[in-house]
Amino acid sequence: MGFWRKPREERWRGWAFQVHLWTGLIIGVWAVLIGLSGSALVFKEEIELALEPEVFAVEPEPDRASLDIILEEARRRFPKHQMGGFIGLDREHESAYLWVTQLDENGDLTNRYNIHFNQYTGELLGEKKRYTGVLGFLEDFHFFLLLGRKGIQVNAVFGFALLAMCLSGLVIWWPGVAKWKEAARVKWGARWKRVNFDLHRAVGFYTAGLLTVMAVTGSYFGLPQVLLGALTAATGASVEEVRAARKFPTSTVVEDGAAFSAQTVYERGEALLPAGFVVDGIILPRTPEAVFNVRGKRPGNPLLASYAGSYFDQYSGELLGAVDSREQPLALQAASLVGPIHFGTWGGVWSKALWLLLGLAPGTLFLTGFAMWWNRLAPKRKGSALPTGPGIWARDR
Fold first, then answer.
1. Is 204 buried (19+), middle (13-18) or exposed (0-12) by CB count in 10 A?
2. Are 306 and 325 in contact (CB under 8 A)?
3. CA torsion sign, 47 to 51 to 52 to 53?
4. N or C end: fewer C-beta atoms under 10 angstroms in the chain?
5. Residue 250, C-beta contacts closer than 8 angstroms, at least 6 positions apart
């Protein structure tokens, strides 16, 4: 009850302040750049469609082109690349694409191209090397910090630091049950230090919950096993059950065997989907043991779309298994929400607009917080002791 009514009297609140201060100083610049790059990428598809309609726009037609023809032409153009998979086969007015890649000496994907094609006529519309151009650079930075696979792991660690900063910030912000409404407002007519202080508190209060969500979902991409383990424990599922649900079947290797027809796999997979699902992509086999993975989703709300799919032997085309996310352990169902939530696609254009604005919050918080901290350095520059407790925020009022 003490923290609920008189939080400033709690001694441990000072520890929360130290966590908040130093995590903010350490990851502040990172948070600003990640937030801004994320905002720029929210409407990446819409921007590309507007700038290059000849590559990204198509007109629907009754028939669809054979995927085998697309693959044949892609292999001819990129003979030293592996065929990765088809994406966006369910799109109506936007082109689908086939991504192709190579492997570097560390086994990382490199030199990736997206080959856009008209899914109705089979016409190849353009080849786009990934992570090139302004948007490509921002994408590479946002996901990998321009460091490759290690970068996404660094992002995950910083994401946990952002989580600590958000939670400690809420602890510091809480003024007591009698004053919380005042603490969520900005007194725009006050002197600039008070406005800066109020702005930091208000923006932190209104965005802390969403930034926490972004920190957790963003960390998932770099450290999926850690967060999946936490979800498994939180939902009461067994580790063995989750592992079994995530296990892919394998193809029976045929030496010098020819790959099965991708078009036939597409048609078989489409026929096996539950009612209301459509095929949106096919992951192609890139190793001798890998399988065709035909993936489908339910159109509509991206957050509740679910997914289903089937696995086929890459040589014989034999059906090896099927999956429906609605029948998987709750931990995996929760993990499937990470993408739509983190990228802002969960509610369509309005959620994207909200996420665009949310990306500006870390910059606002860092600049206002840094201004308060820097202002408190003045006594030290003049030879006095530097205050280190929560009171340094209060003095900015």
1. buried
2. yes
3. positive
4. N
5. 289, 290, 291, 320
- From residue 16, how far is each of 198, 291, 369 by CA, in Å? 19, 50, 15
CA dist., res. 206 & res. 181, Å (int) = 12
- SS (HEC) of 24-62: HHHHHHHHHHHHHHHHHHCCHHHHHHHHCHHHHECCCCC
Strands ordered across the beta sheet of 96-103: 124-129, 109-117, 96-103, 82-87, 278-283, 291-297, 307-313, 319-324
Please name the amino acid found at residue 376. Answer: R
Residues 244, 289 contacting (CB under 8 angstroms): no
Cα(338)–Cα(331) distance, rounded to whole angstroms?
A: 11
Neighbours of 138 (CB within 10 A): 19
Q: CA-to-CA distance for 33 and 138, rounded, in angstroms?
A: 10
User: What are residue 99's DSSP bridge partners?
Assistant: 85, 114
Tally of residues, the chain: 397
Q: Is 71 exposed, middle or buried (0-12, 13-18, 19+ CB in 10 A)?
A: buried
Phi, psi of 280 (to 5 degrees): -115, -10
Domain ranges of the chain: 1-58+146-223+347-397, 59-119+238-328
pLDDT tens digits for the chain (397 residues)?
A: 567 777 777 777 888 999 999 999 999 999 999 999 999 999 999 999 999 999 999 999 999 999 999 999 999 999 999 999 999 999 999 999 999 999 887 777 889 999 999 999 999 999 999 999 999 999 999 999 999 889 999 999 999 999 999 999 998 988 887 788 888 889 998 999 999 999 999 999 999 999 999 999 999 999 999 999 999 999 988 899 999 988 889 999 999 888 899 999 999 999 999 988 999 999 999 999 999 999 999 887 777 778 899 999 999 999 999 999 999 999 999 999 999 999 999 888 999 999 999 999 999 999 999 999 888 775 555 555 444 455 444 444 4
3-state DSSP call for residue 290? coil
How is residue 83 annotated by DSSP? E
User: Contact, 98 vs 107, CB < 8 A?
Assistant: no
The residue type of 52 is E
CB 282 within 8 A of CB 266: yes
Whole-model pTM? 0.86
H-helix or E-strand spanning residue 200:
helix 192-222
